[in-house]
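Incident log, support desk, overnight shift.

02:14 A customer reports that sequence design results differ from what the structure should imply. Their input is reproduced verbatim below. On-call engineer (initials T.W.) acknowledged and began investigating.
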């Protein structure tokens, strides 16, 4: 099938940026990714490159991506998004992403990726973190079974109580963001809960706060 360009007009706002990326991913047969995070990283790169839109991006955007953070995982993600933006600019499909290189913060060993369970695992520390199926990007940081359970429990509380009451995840996340003080683009249970103290605090908020009283 002939490749169809996903960008016909200049990008001037986030909704158009999201549309361009979503269309491009669909035509590249890449799905099951955190599109909101893609748009966030892409927007940062476009602004830092000094471009007005995807069409005016410089080829140096990939080099710029490597300088934005000292975080190993996020640096890789910036680079991949930079390459994706250049693919959109040149109207070329993107290749499916490989798994990232993730180092365990506890032991320093490289985590292995399980294509059967879609997760990263550190065999030495017995920690793991789930990943998105489309790009193999982790949904947070490596954690042991106790923390993983706490994340799932917190997410279930949120889905059963908050999302059910507010009627949509977007609105529920907006309210949770206002209470926790965590920006909505960073509000993910894999990021919020990385130890037992985090789990206690988050679950206290989810259990004690009554959405009906706040409405």
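02:41 Re-run completed on a clean worker. Output:
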């Amino acid at each position: 099938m002939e490749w169809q360009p996903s960008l016909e007009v200049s990008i001037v706002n986030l909704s158009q940026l999201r549309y361009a990326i979503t269309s491009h991913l669909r035509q590249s047969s890449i799905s099951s990714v955190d599109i909101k995070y893609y748009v966030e990283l892409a927007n940062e790169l476009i602004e830092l490159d000094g471009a007005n839109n995807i069409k005016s991006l410089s080829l140096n955007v990939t080099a710029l991506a490597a300088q934005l953070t000292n975080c190993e995982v996020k640096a890789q993600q910036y680079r991949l998004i930079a390459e994706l933006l250049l693919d959109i600019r040149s109207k070329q499909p993107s290749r499916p992403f490989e798994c990232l290189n993730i180092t365990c913060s506890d032991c320093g060993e490289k985590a292995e990726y399980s294509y059967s369970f879609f997760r990263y695992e550190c065999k030495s520390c017995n920690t793991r973190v789930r990943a998105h199926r489309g790009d193999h990007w982790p949904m947070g940081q490596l954690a042991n079974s106790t923390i993983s359970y706490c994340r799932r429990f917190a997410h279930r509380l949120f889905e059963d109580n908050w999302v059910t009451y507010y009627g949509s995840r977007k609105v529920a996340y907006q309210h949770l963001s206002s209470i926790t003080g965590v920006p909505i683009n960073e509000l993910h249970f894999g990021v919020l809960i990385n130890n037992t103290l985090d789990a206690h605090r988050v679950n206290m908020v989810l259990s004690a706060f009554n959405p009906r009283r706040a409405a």
